[in-house]
């Protein structure tokens, strides 16, 4: 999706009504981001939009890239946001051999996930839940956060559906290397063991990664 | 920097910009390693330790290792070529500072070519405006690009300022031009 270098429109401040609705869709898509939402979108800073080719919008706050969206589609986090809040997004993991293909923009194929080094969700696991921060003084405890997450081995606790956004971790690495939208559900991926799983995404070193947002 | 609200602070490689654990997949591994060893010795020790390297190759078949090595070599060559190309491009790029006479004894100074040196024209225009306390803006030129137009004749000052602040621009790549309107008029009259 961002294989080539990108040219972006200048940053544009968004109306507060649009900012509010983006905040809401971000929370709906990534409920685990709830405890961090005021850190991701500080109330006193304003969210800016950069228009990229192919109807993609990148949203930026104080020079920090946050997430992008194609047309009016699913909100997908920028890898720099994933690195800041690694436990807030659903993950799958590729084996070591698949890393260099993903980092060259290739389609992510099922065998890179079903092999020994790969990880797909396992609903039988117990996720390691991130302790939620205590509510600040004078604040009520926020809305409840679902009990999902990855276990110690890196298995996400819920099967992910086709069309859902997912972060791609890698065997032996601590930081995520890609993010994208599933073109095949994780259950089907396990059953079939072949075929494309993420076709076009955002990966380390691609045009979106290199885009200057400061 | 250690602001809990920011979330986790991941250090990024000063050479290839990726998290250092992914430097091995870029074409600048050697430079990345040098940078990491100097800037984050602890991380360097962890990522490039013999144990880590062994773990990295143990899970790959010999064939896959060979392919990966070949791939890495190709990437390194590509990165080197790109770097050379960029260096050549910079060497041949010229920043033009042009003094233009608008009316009788009223001048503007137009600066073009800065984008080749990776500068953000809007930012530089702002800097000019502040530095010289005068109007300064980015305008489109008929040929399709953009240039910075500063009110007043500040050619020499701009040259000095560029050399001082933006060290990437070699002095020889800055060109001062005088665009006199009266020249033509004078020639016609003469
Ligand atoms: Zn690097």
UniProtKB/TrEMBL annotation, chain A:
GO cellular component entries: cytoplasm
Q: Where is this region: Disordered?
A: 112-163
Q: Which SMART domains match?
A: PUA
Cite the PUA domain residue spans from the record: 90-205
Q: Compositional bias (Basic and acidic residues) at which positions? A: 152-163
Where does it localize?
Answer: Cytoplasm
Mainly resides where? cytoplasm
Q: Can you provide one Gene Ontology molecular function annotated for this UniProt record?
A: RNA binding
What keywords would UniProt list here? Cytoplasm
A Pfam family per the record: Pre-PUA
Query: Which parts of the chain are coiled coil?
Result: none
- Fetch the SUPFAM superfamilies from UniProt: PUA domain-like
Functionally, this protein is described as follows: Involved in translation.
In which family does this protein belong, per the annotation? Belongs to the TMA20 family.
Q: Name it.
A: Translation machinery-associated protein 20
TrEMBL record, chain B:
Alphabetized UniProt keyword annotations: Coiled coil, Cytoplasm, Ribonucleoprotein, Ribosomal protein
Against Pfam families, the record matches this protein to: DENR_N, SUI1
Main location per UniProt? cytoplasm
Gene3D superfamilies named among the record's database cross-references: SUI1-like domain (3.30.780.10)
Where in this chain does the record put each SUI1 domain? Answer: 95-166
Q: What are its GO biological-process terms?
A: formation of translation preinitiation complex; translation reinitiation
Gene Ontology MF terms: mRNA binding; translation initiation factor activity
Asked whether the keyword Cytoplasm is assigned, the reply is: yes
**Where in the cell does this protein reside?**
Cytoplasm
Would I find Cell inner membrane among this entry's keywords? Answer: no
Q: Which residues form a coiled coil?
A: 62-89
User: GO cellular component annotations, sorted alphabetically?
Assistant: cytoplasm; ribonucleoprotein complex; ribosome
Organism's domain of life?
Answer: Eukaryota
Q: Copy the domain comment.
A: The SUI1 domain may be involved in RNA binding.
Q: Which family does it belong to?
A: Belongs to the DENR family.
PANTHER family recorded for this chain?
Answer: DENSITY-REGULATED PROTEIN (PTHR12789:SF0), DENSITY-REGULATED PROTEIN HOMOLOG (PTHR12789)
Q: Relate the assembly described in the record.
A: Interacts with the 40S ribosomal subunit.
Q: Which NCBIfam families match?
A: DRP1
UniProt protein name? Translation machinery-associated protein 22
């Amino acid at each position: 999706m961002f294989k080539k270098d990108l040219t972006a429109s200048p940053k544009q401040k968004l109306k507060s009504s649009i900012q509010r609705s983006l905040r809401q869709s971000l929370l709906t898509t990534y409920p685990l981001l709830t405890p961090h939402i005021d850190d991701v979108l500080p109330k006193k800073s304003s969210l800016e939009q950069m228009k990229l080719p192919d109807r993609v919008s990148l949203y930026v706050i104080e020079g920090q890239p946050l997430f992008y969206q194609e047309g009016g589609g699913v909100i997908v986090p920028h890898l720099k946001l994933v690195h800041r809040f690694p436990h807030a997004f659903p993950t799958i993991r590729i084996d070591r051999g698949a890393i260099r293909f993903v980092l060259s923009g290739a389609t992510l194929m099922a065998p890179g996930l079903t092999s020994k080094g790969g990880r797909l969700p396992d609903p039988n696991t117990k996720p390691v839940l991130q302790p939620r921060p205590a509510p600040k003084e004078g604040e009520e405890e926020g809305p409840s956060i679902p009990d999902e997450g990855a276990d110690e081995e890196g298995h996400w606790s819920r099967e992910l559906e086709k069309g859902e956004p997912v972060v791609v971790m890698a065997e032996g690495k601590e930081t995520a290397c890609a993010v994208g939208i599933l073109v095949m559900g994780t259950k089907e991926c396990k059953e079939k063991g072949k075929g494309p799983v993420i076709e076009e995404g955002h990966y380390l070193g691609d045009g979106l990664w290199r885009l200057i947002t400061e | 920097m250690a602001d809990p609200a920011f979330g986790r602070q991941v250090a990024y490689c000063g050479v290839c910009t990726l998290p250092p654990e992914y430097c091995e997949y870029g074409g600048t591994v050697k430079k990345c390693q040098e940078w990491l060893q100097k800037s984050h010795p602890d991380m360097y020790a962890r990522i490039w330790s013999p144990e880590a390297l062994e773990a990295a190759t143990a899970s790959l078949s010999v064939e896959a290792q060979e392919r990966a090595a070949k791939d890495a070599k190709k990437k390194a060559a590509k990165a080197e070529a790109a770097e050379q190309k960029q260096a050549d491009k910079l060497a041949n790029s010229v920043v033009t500072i042009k003094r233009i006479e608008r009316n009788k004894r009223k001048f503007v100074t137009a600066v073009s070519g800065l984008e080749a040196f990776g500068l953000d024209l809007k930012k530089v225009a702002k800097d000019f405006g502040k530095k010289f306390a005068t109007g300064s803006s980015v305008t489109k030129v008929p040929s399709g690009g953009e240039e910075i137009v500063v009110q007043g004749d500040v050619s020499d000052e701009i040259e000095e300022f560029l050399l001082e602040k933006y060290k990437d621009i070699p002095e020889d790549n800055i060109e001062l031009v005088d665009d006199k309107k009266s020249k033509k008029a004078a020639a016609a009259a003469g």
